[in-house]
Design a protein that fits this description.
Layout (H helix, E strand, L loop, with lengths): L20 H25 L2 H39 L8 H24 L5 H14 L4 H13 L3 H13 L6 H37 L1
Helix pairs in contact: 1-2, 1-3, 2-3, 3-4, 3-5, 4-5, 5-6, 6-7
Amino acid sequence: MNKDLGLISSASPDSSVSPNISERAENKLCLANSLKLEGNTFFKQGNLKEAIRHYHRALLYIKGVESDGSNMLQNLSAAFTETMKTKHLEGKMDPNIIERNTQLKIDCYNNLAACLLKTEHPDFDKIVFYCDEVIKLTSCNPKTHFRMAQALFKLGDYNRALESCQKSLENQLQQDSQVISLKTSCLAHLAKQTSQEKVLYSKMLGLKMNKQEF
């Protein structure tokens, strides 16, 4: 990564008023991608702690790009007159950067969920949170839905786990045997719960009838 991250070029004398937001965002995007790739290397080596740390650091830069975009929108109205005078449009965020930043965000949250699932004592609530963050951005990733299903199953939320299994299968060209197995386990647990509820209801109903006899 041979970029001079400290320099922001300008094609206009008024760049202090309207900085090149896209160039600044590009710098952050490069750093985020580099950290993500390093995290991937640590993940492959089995160093989950370092992988998680790098993905979190990458997300800080990703959120920095989002912050640049938000600030641009907030300042757009005030800067509009000056922009029209100078025809200086460098304050506009490049759509390509926004798209790449979103994909990086998806990758990092997906990878964090994958890391946590491999830890000795997984934080299943956090895995659900990470998967939710991905699903907000794209709902067609089968691995995300499967990881969500795994976490929800461990949390005992078999209905939602079943839904996530189904969504994972719907987005697969070839049905994954692991997802099918988990779906079967969800159905078995739900059937058991239903059976237990029926027994409990029968006992409660029998108790009420006995009371009425007296």
